[in-house]
């Protein structure tokens, strides 16, 4: 079921409209709250309604309008319903933050990774990103005024893998190709597409890094993390650029994380 939180002065037609996938926790929640605080109308998409409601409630009163939509991005019918709900509620779409993703089983060597686990990561991280981008692209191309922006959530792993991360790393590399192709194909229609590669933002997914993460040399060592709010502000900056300007790729990470020189 979809739920709506509105401001006292309903002016959704004058607001910028965003879809944030994986909005129930972590980076998705932080970005959604940042956009709502800035006055955007935001469709919060995720598989579980309760965390989405918590995200909507976390935004301060007087901000933008939140629409929660239960959706599994790996299911084409769910994606179609999500973007249909956004079109019906807000009439247009200015931003897709393609954020939903999963790391998959942690610490599993490639020879032991079950195919089902590989397929789940691919379906969520890559196929889900494609389905959402396709739906957003169609709407942005046809709406008036035409155009919009898609920001894909890549990863440091889109450049440099961690040990035992074959499914996650492969999908994030593929996401970079998706970003480049969408960016090129969107030019005639005013659709700007970029990617943010994030390293060690403090979320549930990275909770164990401060106590110890497997390194390329086989040792386990703690890693620094950064405030997820810094990621959210970076996404907002990318989102609020005029469509004539685009951050094609951005890397935001904990300053001292073992990325530059990893291995």
From TrEMBL:
The keyword Oxidoreductase applies. PROSITE patterns: ADH_SHORT. SMART domains: PKS_KR. Keywords: Oxidoreductase. It holds the Pfam family adh_short. Residues 16-199 form the Ketoreductase domain. InterPro entries: KR_dom (IPR057326), NAD(P)-bd_dom_sf (IPR036291), Sc_DH/Rdtase_CS (IPR020904), SDR_fam (IPR002347). Belongs to the short-chain dehydrogenases/reductases (SDR) family. This is SDR family oxidoreductase. It comes from Streptomyces violaceolatus.
